Amino acid sequence: MTIKYELLYFKFHGLARLPRLLLDMTGESWQDRYPQDWDKEKQDQPFLHIPVLTDFQEDGSKFILAESSAINRYLAEKAGLMGSNARETALISQFYESWGEIHQKYWPLTYQFNDMLSAEQIDKQMSDLREKIIVPILTKHDQALAKNPSGFYVGDKVSTSSDWMSLADVAAAASLPLFDYKNQVTKETHPHLFALHEKLSNHKAFKAQEARFPGKC
Ligand SMILES: N[C@@H](CCC(=O)N[C@@H](CS)C(=O)NCC(=O)O)C(=O)O
């Protein structure tokens, strides 16, 4: 079978979590590639980082794309998950970017800032992030989901597949379990977000993801 896509990333989920889910959702054949000698291979990448997607073209050429958000949008478009008009696409991007804000603010506090801040400072920053950003923003998300009878973020017929899912839904379902909400985001407080997560957890791409690198984030 000819391979349509290849994703270069390390052997864990990290920034490849969404690209891998979306690759499964394109219905095309694809493969992971793990760097053998990253220090060498780094120089060959568009911006010296991974993930990097290669899309093998019919004429034998390669389309190479870096930056996880660009990769996610490209693959979501290929999978029919970016809506069917400019407004749907914009709303899908809006919710997707909003999850992006949480990721961008949360992970540095969990990893990079450990060297610069004391444990108390990190706790304080994390609690501010939770109270002022994560919980109130996810409350808005839950309210938006509540308004849509489909249970997805963006109206009807946003997808060529029968279930109307979009990049925003995939990002939400993949992201929801990753953060420590200290019991402030639960099935009771944010029922629509949890219902979306539960619905997508049964999707075969999510099942395949679960089986990949168990126990690693
Ligand atoms: N803005 C980039 C960040 C990519 C990034 O930082 N990737 C890390 C892995 S998560 C990486 O390439 N680390 C190895 C290195 O920089 O040498 C994106 O979203 O794709």
Descriptive account of the structure:
This protein is an alpha+beta fold. The protein folds into 2 domains: 5-78, Glutaredoxin (3-Layer(aba) Sandwich), CATH 3.40.30; 86-210, Glutathione S-transferase Yfyf (Class Pi), Chain A, domain 2 (Up-down Bundle). The protein is built from 8 helices and 4 strands. It has a 4-stranded mixed β-sheet, covered by helices on one side. Strand 3 (52-56) and strand 4 form a beta hairpin. Helix 1 runs parallel beside helix 3, helix 1 (17-26) packs across helix 6 (167-175) and helix 4 (86-110) packs antiparallel against helix 5. It is globular. The model is unreliable at 158-162 (pLDDT under 50). Glutathione is lined by residues 14-15, 42, 49-51, 67-68. GO terms for molecular function: glutathione transferase activity. It comes from Mortierella isabellina. Residues 3-83 form the GST N-terminal domain. This is Glutathione S-transferase.
